[in-house]
Design brief:
mainly alpha, 9 helices, elongated
């Protein structure tokens, strides 16, 4: 059955409460993400559960509301990251869209921090391994040590010029002044 065929299936007054919950939850989830009905329709199509924008509006706001078929419900669960139980549960009454968005931002940020910590540990291991290899090179004598120190200095300056030109320029000026004073 297509989304258009489903549009004709409007619910009457004896409609089960979970159907109203689903409609409210869809609207809440969409608004909490700042999505338009068009954006939600696009995300549903990308998830393999196409529903057009007008059908979404009729589900959320129609008089009477349009019913949601099982395929569509599964699509909404996929797009919103909900279980079917969560989709059909009574919608939250006090957590407005701003609060829901902040909660989502908090969770996303906490997970991003965790990923950054994992990445930092991986990079620390890589730095340790490279440092060990460089230490072996430096242990071949004073000339190797001096050459390594000079190479590290040159690479750090090159990195600064590429990634922070203003700071690098200020550092060069400062070094030039220091050399002039020392001369």
């Amino acid at each position: 059955m297509s989304s258009e065929d489903g549009a004709a299936r409007a619910a009457g007054p004896d409609r089960p409460a979970p159907e109203d919950y689903v409609a409210e939850r869809i609207k809440q989830e969409r608004e909490a993400r700042g999505w338009s009905t068009v954006a939600l329709a696009e995300k549903m199509a990308e998830a393999g559960h196409p529903v057009n924008q007008a059908a979404i509006w009729r589900i959320e706001s129609g008089k009477p509301r349009r019913r949601v078929n099982l395929d569509e419900a599964l699509g909404f669960c996929t797009v919103f990251g909900l279980t079917m139980d969560e989709l059909t549960a009574p919608p939250m009454k006090h957590a407005n869209n701003l609060i829901r968005g902040l909660v989502r931002e908090r969770v996303d940020t906490a997970h991003e921090i965790t990923q950054l910590q994992i990445d930092a540990k991986r990079l620390e291991r890589k730095l340790r391994d490279v440092s060990i290899d460089l230490e072996h090179f430096a242990n071949n004598g004073e000339e190797h040590q001096a050459e390594l120190e000079e190479l590290i200095h040159l690479e750090e300056n090159a990195w600064l010029r590429r990634n922070n030109p203003e700071f690098a320029r200020a550092r060069e000026i400062s070094n030039a002044r220091k050399q002039a004073r020392d001369s």
